[in-house]
């Protein structure tokens, strides 16, 4: 089963309408995403909790890493560079952090508030190589902007 992003976006919009709590939004989005596609082996958020540090947030799947510095891994790169990381082969990514030995590919997207500040990242892992493409990236970026782009600045 492959996700229908248009339908998923409508469901997420209905479920999150009026909600402003970051963690509640993350929990709802990750639940809907994880169960929408067989490629999604681990789906979760890492939240910026202090400068240059990501800590695990709501997720679905096996255990994830608890803390990821901006300087390490795919999640750190997405947060540090403020751009989506589309990784076809995690073993070929310099500094990849292996939270799960089954992960073969992943997509990690920065999550931004209304001011454009990175408040976290969405990490989706797959046990299949090259599981994600530009269509996934575009649809997920649009979904994240619709949900989190309305949140006020944290400063």
Oligomer: single chain
Q: Can you give the helix content as a percent range?
A: 25-40%
Shape: globular
Gyration radius, in Å: 14 Å
Largest sheet: 6 strands, antiparallel
Mean pLDDT: 94
Element order: H for helix, E for strand:
HHEEEHEEEH
Number of strands: 6
Cα distance, first to last residue? 41 Å
Q: What class do helices, strands and sheet pairing give?
A: alpha+beta
- Bin the strand percentage: 25-35%
Biggest sheet strand line-up: 3-2-1-6-5-4
How many H/I helical runs? 4
* Poorly predicted tracts of residues: none
Quick tags:
single chain, 155 residues, alpha+beta, 6-stranded antiparallel β-sheet, 4 helices, 6 strands, globular
Detailed description of the structure:
- The structure is a single chain.
- A 6-stranded antiparallel β-sheet has the order 3-2-1-6-5-4, with helices on both faces.
- The protein is globular and about 40 Å long.
- It is α+β, with helices and mostly antiparallel strands and 155 residues long.
- It contains 4 helices and 6 strands; from the N terminus they run H-H-E-E-E-H-E-E-E-H.
- A hairpin with a 5-residue loop joins strand 5 (105-112) and strand 6 (118-126).
